Every structure is written in structure tokens, then in C-alpha cells.
Amino acid sequence: MTDVSLGMPQLPAPDYPPEVRARLEADAAEIISRYPGARSALLPLLHLVQSEEGHVTRTGMAFCAQQLGLTTAEVNAVATFYTMYRRKPSGDYQVGVCTNTLCAVMGGDAIFETLQEHLALGNDETTEDGKVTLEHIECNAACDFAPVVMVNWEFFDNQTPESAIRLVDDLRAGREVEPTRGAPLCTFKETARILAGFPDQREGAVAASGGAGPASLVGLRYAKGENPQARVVHPRPVSAQPEDAAPRTTDEAAPRTPGEQPPGTHPSSHDAPQETSASDPAHPAGPTAEEGE
Ligand code: FES
What we know:
Elements: E1 2-3, E2 8-9, H1 18-32, H2 42-53, H3 58-68, H4 72-79, E3 93-98, H5 101-119, E4 125-126, E5 132-137, E6 149-151, E7 154-156, H6 161-173, H7 188-195, H8 214-224, H9 250-253, H10 289-292
Helix pairs in contact: 1-2, 2-3, 2-7, 3-4, 5-6
Bound molecules: FE2/S2 (inorganic) cluster.
């Protein structure tokens, strides 16, 4: 094998110690047996080797390739594609600050900058004590609780720069911290083993799944028209529009069919398409007469 970047032959990856290899082989066999084809087990196997060393090493990738009948290049391509696989030694606690749009404007950017300064770290860097790795993360579908910080993929909702500082200080000091919801917190290696598909035996881990937050539930009620206090945003009546405003469309001016609501009167009409082929008698949904022939 040749290291193209250096033009030097690359040494084979060192093997695991025999007892570690035997243990991992037994775990790998259990994982592989869950899939109709061995190569389908690559993602959980990468989590398995990550649970051993805290990141995916060349040794781990070679192990995965051997167990699955793949080339190390194929394993490397997958391991470098997904951000959940770490490629260098990192902390026991991966502190991810969501800086995607909603969290960013709700304070995520400020939290990230505060933690960078407090920990003297850049993105994807680890404290010298090996406890905390700080990183930007993308939306984790927890926007109801923005701004969100995740530690080893457990949720810490509605954070502030001050609460985030307390959080990382507690993690570094070994003080117990409790996620806002979801399973109890464990180390990155323990999390990786759970992600490899081994049952989480910890107390409270099964019951802790969480659900949609209040903002989503209110939105759902609005969409269903179930909330009588819903704030409805109606388009301004034609008479109230300035004279140079765009004229109503043909469909708005047309007589309405019995039961049809005028545009803007449904609780969610301000954020829903008002003109669709299904609601437009002149353009009914489905194939035209010519198309159906
Ligand atoms: S934008 Fe942060 S969780 Fe969605």
C-alpha cells in the first residue's frame, strides 16, 4: 500500500491485542447476523470499533474490512463520509452546539463563541484533559427547544451561554449532569456501543424517548384548525389594498363552489398553498380527458 500524499509505502495497520480482537469478533458476528448481507453491517461495525478506541482508527477500519469482506478503501470511504465517526482521538464528551439557522438566531452562535473562548478551543478541538471536544453541529430536529446543545447526542435544550459554561465545567469536573430529556448521559465510547446496536441497560434509558415540543404541537393544532385562539393572518381585503396593488387572480375573483372557503380563512392558510389544482375547478387534479384516452 502506498501513501500517495508522501509517496511512501504505508505500513499495514497494527492489529488489536488478541483478547480485544476476540471480543470484537464475537460482537461483530452478532451484529452481522442481523443483516441479510454482511456488508450492510458496516455502519454499526464502525460504531463498534469506535466504542473500543473512541475514534475510528486504521486498525478499526482494517478489522471492519476483514469481517465484512470489503476493501479498506471501501471502509475508509464510508468512515470519512459520516460525521458521527471521529477520525482522531477526541474527548469523553462531545459537546455539539447547534449553529443551524434557528438555533443560531436563538443564541446558538453566541453559545458556540462563548464556549470557544471559555475552553480556548476551536471547532473539533479537545481540551487537554481529554474530557470535552467542542464542535458545531447541524440541526438535530430539536428546533422546538432552540438553542440546543448536544452531549454525546443527548439533548440539552434551551441553553444560554451561561448554562453552557456550567455544563462543560461540570463535565470536566466529573459532576453528574442530566440531559433535559432522553436517556441518561454516558461517555462517548459507551454511546458508540449503544449505536452499534447493543442494548442500553441503564435505568431510565428505555422510557426516555421524548416527543414533539410545545411549539410543534401548537403548530399541529393550528394546521388542524383545532385551536380557536389561533391567530389567523388574513390577506387584506381588495378595497384596503393600494390602487397599484396586484389585481386578484382569476381564481380569487371567480364564484366559489358551495362549501369552498375564500382564500385566507383557513387557520393555516397563511402558510399553505392557496391555489392548487385540487382546489381549482378550472384545473381539476388527475389526467385530462386527452391524457386519459
Ligand atoms: S436548528 Fe438547532 S435543532 Fe434545529
